[in-house]
Amino acid sequence: MTANHRQMVSLVVVGLLVATGLLAASATRTGDGGGPAPRGWVPKDTDWTQFRHDAAHSGAPVWAPSPADWTTFRGDNGRTGVSEATASMRFAYLKWMYRTGGSRVSSSPAVANVDPSDPNPELLIGSEDYRLYCLNATSGRLKWRFPTQGPVSASPAVGDIDSDGVPEVVFGSGDGRVYAVDGPSGSLLWRYTTRAPVLASPLIADINGDDELEVVVASMDGMVYALRGDGTRLWRATVVVVNDKSGEGIYASPAVADIFNDGWMKVLVSAGQGLSLLNGTDGSHEGGVDWHTVTGQSHYIATPAVKDLDGNGAPEIVSIYGDPPRFSVDQIQRSWASSDGVTDPRWVRVVSSPALCDGDGDGIQEAYFGTDSGRVICVQMERISEMGRFTISDDWSRNVTGPVRSSPALADLDGDGKMELLVGSDNRRVVCLNAEDGTPSWQYLVPKAVFSSPAVADGDLDGKAEVFFGCYDGTVYALDYNF
Q1: Cβ–Cβ contacts within 10 Å for residue 243, how many?
Q2: CA distance 455 to 413
Q3: β-bridge partners, 15
Q4: Helices and strands, counts by H and E, the chain
Q5: 9/355 Cα distance (integer angstroms)
Q6: Which residues neighbour 247 within 8 Å (Cβ) at sequence distance 6 or greater?
Q7: pLDDT at 322
Q8: pLDDT score, position 257
Q9: The pTM is what?
Q10: Distance between CA atoms of 84 and 326, rounded to whole angstroms?
């Protein structure tokens, strides 16, 4: 890095500092089954139903995901980007490809069995041809597609939002609407209209403790909407004021957690110059962090991740803050900001959302993310005080050539008991790196850029995971091991 690098990336770990106005960090731990569980349909453990894969719910489940499913953006409602699926993928081979009618697929896939009459999982993904596609995850064959009136660039989420034992698929569109469609048939159940395009991925969780699942989604109108399972509005909250001066709505997808460890869920949303904490019951603001006071800048794109980093039962919030692209790519700066607001200025612009995992098995959690400079960066996050302060130190970085706007996914892809990292690049490839030290494992070349964040799930029920992603050539790809 040269001395004139000045674009800002801030990685912020927020701990329990209520007295100082920062967020409390007693959130429900991702992936441990704690907290209230949902009634009705529950995805299998091997599904990946949302962008970043793990909300806590309660009740008597009818359908449950296995650890290898990917049902939402980043695999869970904590948006951690980690799959429990394993594979034998020392090299990647094309399993199938499906060409959508759009010129680009930037949506990230969800993988889950949405049709109880068919044991095979399905893949759900949006395209810029204004459609959501449901494909057989084993063969890539089209099962159904649903038309909207705008590009579908956000990731879908899967859940039984009406408690009838059959999963629904919920997604947003550039036409400003949120859609809920029947999983088996793709028929419309309801739609809700916001005031601007919906570019953020929805999440499905019981956010108000009524033992029913709600849908939470952010819009470019600067608002967060909480919708009941029948599509009626529970509440809406203004997070950022969109006007001629601000110009920006909400790109980042919401996350949800029991922040205060009191049994009540809070919705976390990053936009504009800060992170907002919303009461799951009524959408009222309950605090937040002003990134502008920490970093001196005011633009937020990356989705936050929530996880208990130090094993004390109180989760932390990890956010990466990227400067707007008004600076040239070679002018870079980085700032690690701890929960007390202390920063260490150094390097790069980031759109990629962090993945959280102990990738090297040393008992200390790492955060993994990509940058516009073409690097994948790993940092260690270790608690150093009872006041919730963490040290954030460089572990490794790897140049993968071409800006990285895809968000990493982590899984044991070669069956050796160690984690690998997958991420897409603008340089027409998906790259697999060893999470321990960043050494390359394999890469798969495609015709155009990969903005889509990979999903890792067992799509053919052979006990081994596959890798699924979209490409800017309008195609959906499934990769498998040599079979």
Answers
A1: 9
A2: 12
A3: none
A4: 1, 36
A5: 16
A6: none
A7: 53
A8: 84
A9: 0.82
A10: 39
* Beta-carbon contacts of residue 303 (< 8 Å; ≥ 6 apart): 51, 52, 73, 74, 79, 200, 201, 252, 253, 255, 270, 353, 407
Q: Give the pLDDT confidence score for residue 12 in this predicted structure.
A: 56
Element (H, E) at 294: helix 291-295
121 secondary structure, DSSP code: -
Residue matched to tokens 């150093």: 384
Nearest CA to 41 out of 19, 56, 63 is that of: 63
What is the spatial distance between Cα 247 and Cα 240, in angstroms, rounded to a whole number?
10
Look at residues 305, 295, 322, 304 and name the one whose alpha carbon lies nearest to residue 405: 322
Q: Torsion angle, CA of 360/428/111/266, rounded to 10 degrees?
A: 60
The reported pLDDT for the residue numbered 174 is 95
Task: Give the whole-angstrom CA distance, residue 379 versus residue 365.
Answer: 9
Token pair of 360 as six digits:
């090297």
Q: From edge to edge, which strands make up the β-sheet containing 375-383?
A: 355-357, 365-370, 375-383, 390-399
The pLDDT, as a whole number, for residue 420 is 92
**Local mean pLDDT, 10-residue blocks, the chain (483 residues):** 38 42 31 35 51 39 59 73 72 93 91 91 96 97 98 93 93 97 97 95 93 94 96 93 66 84 85 81 78 49 78 75 34 33 40 84 87 85 61 79 88 88 94 93 95 92 92 96 64
**Nearest 5°: CA angle at 414, between 56 and 456?**
35
3-class state of residue 114 by DSSP: coil
Q: How far is CA 20 from the centre of its chain?
A: 28
